[in-house]
Amino acid sequence: MMKFVKIGLVFFCLITTWGLAKGQYFTTGQDPASISWKQINTNDFQIIFPEAYEEKAKYMAAIFQDLLQKGGKDLNHQPKKFSVVVHTQSATSNGMVAWAPKRMEIYNTSSPDNDAQLWIDHVTTHEYRHVIQLDKLEQGFTRFLNYIFGQQSTMVVVGLYLPAWFLEGDAVCAETALSELGRGRLPFFEQELRAQLIEKGNYSYDKAINGSYQDYVTDRYKLGYYLVGKAKTHYGDELWEKTLNRVGRRPLGITSFADGIKNGMNAKRDSVFVSLSDKQKEILAQGISVEDIDWEQVKEQNTRADGKLMLYYDTMKELQWEWKVQDAQLNLTKFEALANREQVYTNQRFPHVGTSGEVIVLKEGLADAAYFEIISEDGSKKKLFVPGYDFNSGFDYKNGKLIWSERKENLRWEKADKSVLVMYDTNLKKRSKIKYENSLFAPAFSDDGKQITAVEIDELGDNHLEILNAESKLLEKRITAGKDEFILSPKWNKNNSILYILLNKEGKQLVSLDLNSGSRTSLFSFGAHEMSQLEVTDDHVFFTASFTGIDNVFAFNKSSEKIYQVTSSRFGARDPHVNKNQLYYSDYTSDGYLPVKTTSQADNWTEWAGNFKTFPLAENLSEQLGEKLSPDTTNLDRFEVKNYSKLGHLFNFHSWAPVFIDGLEQESDIGVSVASQNKLSTLLTTVGYKKEQGYQNGQFYVNMSYQGLFPIFDSKLTVGNKESQFWTLADRITPSQIDTVLVNRALKQWGWENSIRLPFDLSGGKYSTRIIPKVTYSLAKLANMKYTTLATTQANPLPLGEYDFGDKDFTQEIMEYQIFAYNIVKTAPRDVQYQWAQVLELNYRHTPFGDSKLGETWSAESYLYFPGFAKHHGIKLYGGYQNRSVYNSRFSNTIKSPRGMYDIYGEDIFSTGIDYALPLFYPDWNMGPLAYFKRVKMNAFFDYGYQKGKFSDMNQNLYEYKDAFTSFGAELSTDLHVLRFSAPVDLGIRVGYEDQTGSMFANLLISFSLSAF
Asked: pTM, whole model, 2 decimals?
């Protein structure tokens, strides 16, 4: 019996997931329609790319060919053929793997703060590991589900069993093991968890994986790297190999993943803790002052947990002890904090000294969306300006002007966003923009503020150094980097030269470029070790580097060419800025970055001896794998390039089901269906049959959305035989009279709905702004109508006779015109709703064509959002008006009625309401594996509705009516995670009073968002 319960649960989850648009059709947007696509199609992989990217696509093919032998060695798996789509026109540095349809997507642009590894090497290695993970699951019963449900069954198994920390952590382990760097060798990558464990201790497993509004919790990449990596080094590769085998073969086992981990740990766990005890004895023998831990007690305490929790608590305790040992040996730099720690996690970064001695920082955290803040010398603070969405590369300041890079969306194409430079004059309070055809990053002013240097990245990912006139914003000079070379953090130097970090296949080096001659000189090579964030003075070049295993500020002496360690930070020092004899930088704490300053005197610095601190876990992973990425680039022409036809690849049927599911409409029914999404995500299609209430033999269904042109075209066709029973007035033939009769009507109905949307994206700065006009034509044809009389009215029963129902074919043709628009200012994570936003929707519907005239309806509704009376509170105002013609009895309402009552349905309808939302508390409370509660919030509301219209009596006399209704109440809800699933659920209850019927009402409120997954 239990087995059947498990099977039912899995199938229920499968159907539910398919019923969601984001589950069935996952798309991240569109590339410009003008792109001509090419492909490299081998037996093992297919790369689809823009025509101009051919040379780099061949190099990417060489990487994948190398990864086929090495990328899945530790999991003993080589994946089936997969497809890769390369996006070259976006400023985004990213990659992703989806499995419905099965594909990898690579964004070509290298990050402006990229580590000491080529971006294309890094992103392909990481994403290829995701291909291996998902492909390895397709065995056993999961493989059987693939035959029944297609590719989405694999994603359902992943969603049910594989936590996000495993997927991302395992991929980070792979990128680290296969390279000389990888994120596992970056102090920046570990500092959040390190600071938390040392200063605040360990969090519960549920808090660690689901986050918190009370405390900052590191992300799934960092947490997962240590969980997966420690398990690899302690228990061997077979732990994860066997665990994935178990999940793939036994997806009906609710605890397959946890049991796989526990089984893999149990055989060696005793020896792991013996090793930890021995290490502790060695440390204590060296006289290092650190906590003496009873490791046997730790082992016994965690043994009672399931596999996931046992691994988590074992690993966190081990990391906490290791990092406390290192912490005890640090000799920290003394500094003066420019601000106190905030009560809520907040980063105050990139300190720059202003013209009057004040310090400007970029502030952002759980309680604040990013904004520039002025910290006066007396410690008082003032909000300066809210920038747009930046690229986390900081800003520069000179002569009262700020400059930084931020994202600018394309009017139509989601994958053609650019990075633009933005200047803000602090005196004039004026914002201006520098926009070029390609993306611009990492701007820096010259000493006199008259020129700007920045990095330009073109559509092929190639780098150029730009010299711009700060006043005219015109280009003065352009220097192109060499092949596979990337320019990072350029800064002005004296004698008309620029210093920057050069990244190539050998790693990173400090370079000086003479603008007059164009010649460049390498000052120092750092190889595969991280350095970033240059700050140049007359005598020194300051920079952030990972040489000590913790991010610290170092200095390169221009004269002696020696390197000095300037800071010794507990968790990490970044963002150096020098003003006179003071060094300003950001020092990390468990509550975020603090801006600090210290005296910048070379006498206090320590000359660096050239010893790079190693990262034991990363080195163990590399040694254990025994492989490094080394693609064969001797003959790239071996990869044949062919045209890729968009028309010839419109359809790609990837999933199907013995139930009807349409992700476009977010609906499900009894029936069958197949889903198609082509690899460029331009056409989404559902074809199927559904039972559909009221249809005798069901309904044939086709729904398509073509998004590859500037307008989006949507079309839906339905065909079916429909039956219905209803009472109606009918003309009796003999004797001639009008009867009220119950009839059964059977007919064939065709429905065809077509729409055109124009999604204009006008976003810029701190505003997300879109305007979407839409025109829809709907045709309903009713044919082959047959009426069967079942009964006459019971009040005056008559024998059934012949009736004239006028049962001829007719059509209904409806035109609808809509404009949907919104303007939203970015919000902080703790805000319960938008703090400043406007949402507007206009609708007009009528029937200018066809046999049936349904009248017309027009409406307007709007939401306005404002800040509340305290931080994170919010006020929402709603207003809607609708007018319908006297002939119209078919069109449904397009505005909402007051909460808790039936829809009001007059010729003129007005509705308004006010909400006040506020957070109550942040419990971070979990009920074991069942639920984890992050936030409890409340919303009070008051609604008012008014309607006016006419009705006729039995004698066709018209009477006017007017009604007004009110309702009010409160909503109590919580943000929680159910069964440790990453998508948050908003669950609550609404209680109120309405005067339409004069009664109390209560509603259950539930929603969840896959966008937060």
From this structure: 0.94
